[in-house]
Amino acid sequence: DTGVSQDPRHKITKRGQNVTFRCDPISEHNRLYWYRQTLGQGPEFLTYFQNEAQLEKSRLLSDRFSAERPKGSFSTLEIQRTEQGDSAMYLCASSASMGQITSYEQYFGPGTRLTVT
Amino acid sequence: AQKVTQAQTEISVVEKEDVTLDCVYETRDTTYYLFWYKQPPSGELVFLIRRNSFDEQNEISGRYSWNFQKSTSSFNFTITASQVVDSAVYFCALSEANTNAGKSTFGDGTTLTVKP
After folding, report:
1. pLDDT for the residue A98
2. What is d(CA B94, CA B98) in angstroms, rounded to the nearest whole number?
3. Which residues of B are less than 8 Å from A95 in CB distance?
4. Set of chain A residues whose Cβ sits within 8 Å of the Cβ of B59
């Protein structure tokens, strides 16, 4: 299976703890995105990488959030000092870009469901 | 700023009925891309279709068809002869070309329930 994978699938943590999620994109995709989805809403953009460069961050991404894609392959999203409001599904997606076409469809992973108690 | 509105929160139909999911978008860009995704109960978003702003041809794929109208900023999705397996949340999304990022803005989704 060469789809997008995410780990862990579920994470329960206590308020104030740090958590880290991992995303492995489709191997030939150079773009990687993180989104957050809460119940009854569509995914909200958090941040985006092209290869190893983080090119854009949403204002939703507070200082407690940090993302990396060190070798242009997998990515990690860390949330420090978690709050109950961080409870959500965190989705990773990847896509390809070629030439002047800057927006191909995105392929999503199964998500990591975070519950902060 | 870009925005996507899916006014229908929930739709319920009986199997074999046709159903149309509405999507209205806002953008200042002249070049943009529109998408539909399906999120079944299992949770994973599945890409269905991409449409470029400069191509207003409607598209049909099996029981699925899409009607793109720039004049009304709409990109509606019709399922013909619906089946129980079509039950899912459907999201419409917009991506502006000028951001050169490909990030998508999603609507809040329409939950479709197809009853046997």
Report:
1. 67
2. 12
3. 102
4. none
